[in-house]
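Q: What would this chain look like folded?
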Amino acid sequence: MKFYRYVLCIPPLDWECCFLHIEEYKQSFTRKYNQNKEYYRRVIGDCHQHIGDIDNLADLTYKDLSASVPNAKLRCPAMIFSIPSGNVRGSALFCIIYKLDNDGDTFIYSPVPLVHLEQDQMGEIEL
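A: My prediction, written as structure tokens:
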């Protein structure tokens, strides 16, 4: 899967409070999914598969981050946000955010171009 990597340096993204850490997202997703399993099974599919897909995405993007920034230490746990996929199912795509501890640089991995961040794009990667 192709991902676009953005690095926000000056200014870095310092709005951590408006994003969920990946573990927070998974807990929230599971709680909501279990409130209406039949509906979400039709719309999203299996809950455990979705959580596994998120974990896989986080693993792949973290490996790329580690290759790009050796010995990278994170200021906070990895964060996640969703954006509409634009397909007829009404599904979502997920972006992962890593914030470095030493200088606050922010790495964003997105499956689609984020046009408003083009000046910060650090290339396309295949994950």
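DSSP finds three helices and six strands in the chain.
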